[in-house]
Amino acid sequence: MTYQPSPLRIARESAKRRATVRSRLIAALSTFFLATALLVILTSASGFHKVTGAFFNWHHARLSFPQVLNGLWLNLRVMVIAEICVLILGLLIALARTSVSPLLYPVRLAATIYTDIFRGLPLLLVLLLVGFGIPGLGISWLPSSTLLLGIVSLILTYSAYVAEVIRAGIEAVHPAQRMAARALGLTTAQTQRTVILPQALRKVAPPLLNDLVSLQKDSGLISVLGAIDAIRQARIYSSMTFNFTSYVVAGALFVALTIPLTRFTDWLTRRQDLARNLRGQW
Amino acid sequence: MNQLSVRNLRKSFGDELVLRDISFELQPHQVTVVIGASGSGKSTLMRCINLLEEIDDGQIILANEDITAPDINPDVVRAKIGSVFQSFNLFSHLTVLQNITLASRKVHGVKREIAEDQAMELLSRFGLEAKARSYPDLLSGGQQQRVAILRALITKPQLLLLDEVTSALDPILIAEVLTLIAELKAEGHTMLISTHEMGFALKVADELIFLQHGEIAERGNPHELLADPQSEGLRAFLAAMREAGRL
Lengths: 282, 247
Known about the structure:
The structure holds 2 protein chains of 2 kinds.
Chain A lengths: L6 H38 L3 H8 L2 H41 L6 H16 L2 H15 L8 H27 L2 H9 L4 H31 L11 H12 L3 H31 L7
Chain B lengths: L3 E10 L2 E11 L4 E5 L6 H8 L7 E6 L2 E2 L7 H5 L2 E4 L11 H11 L5 H14 L15 H13 L5 E5 L7 H16 L4 E4 L3 H7 L2 E6 L2 E6 L1 H6 L4 H12 L4
Parallel strand pairs in B: 3-8, 3-9, 6-7, 7-8
Antiparallel strand pairs in B: 1-2, 1-4, 4-5, 9-10
């Protein structure tokens, strides 16, 4: 026998449909009014035309685009290199901080001090310290390329964040999982590698990707050291034309770069909820 | 030769002595069931035997080896003992098959194909072969616990410790798990079981141990013990069990 929807279910579904139509209508109206209000406030401002001319000039956008895009290629390489190094270094620091062996006490201490310092220091300050301080030391075998030192600064700062996220994940795995693994005869290291870390990384994938998105946009800060990236190119263009549109172009390109990773994060979170049967009516 | 001898075992948490002078033996193929109220020390006793807890005093001897000697490597000992817990503790990121084969691959160095063959053979013997590729979250509690037992079984342990393995299950699922344990007894596994299922204890136990306040208050043949309890403690415990409809 095929299932015939009960009158109750039919009534409930049509009520739901009515509620959906109503809420969509409300959303459309409120969006319309808010947008209109914003538009009126902006266009009535005395400097509106000056600002749109300086920042949103289509002619300058077209002209500066190739130059800024060329700079973005550098950001892209910086992002990828920094992200890979950050994930590796962050993982190692997290493992050091969650280790229990007395032998590793100095490593644990160093990792704790490191994360405390680099989570607190503004990235700009790290960039200046590393970028100008290290070449200033005059040690011949240390690298002096501003680009390289910029990447190092990004890695130093973001590894501290990522390490804390991974550590939180490790500590969020239920202790009984560790006990069960040890009861099977797995060593501490085997337990960490095959049981704890895979679960921990799964738990923290969304916040981890969030940090990587943040790293991507902060890669633009290496321009303060003189690396010719997208933002530096925008500045060069702007200083030659006295128009700021190139900065907006650079901004738009950065947003376009981070959106895929952001959407991927959302998708991953949703998939995890689904896998845990955490979807329902509440 | 005894498969397991526990001699004058003491265990304390802080200044509270939770196991006082526990001594008993298990012959090969023997099944001993430990009963007692919550807090009587059943789980602690189990955890001492697979070295998840450090004991204060006494000796535990597994097949002629003193596993409480100071220079013993706990990982090696645990690999010889199969442990199953009340809360299943399957690894949620691994499939049923991966859960079962993990220890034999990582600890005993068995090749993946061989380990998987052994696991599939076990799974099909106990009617779980359809679940081999499933993740634990999608299994019923009874299926999860049966998988957890097979995970402990695959490395052919010298001793199986089953700690209240049915306490988190409803009656129908309890029956599934108890059937499996009864089959293990028939296969000749040496087992130490703690449980609140008195009917089951009567069925599988060669010996019954009644723990009270960290001491063995009574031990012996299960039918004799239940028919004629000597201590006030066991009489009260059995009366409470009857009251709860568990006996």
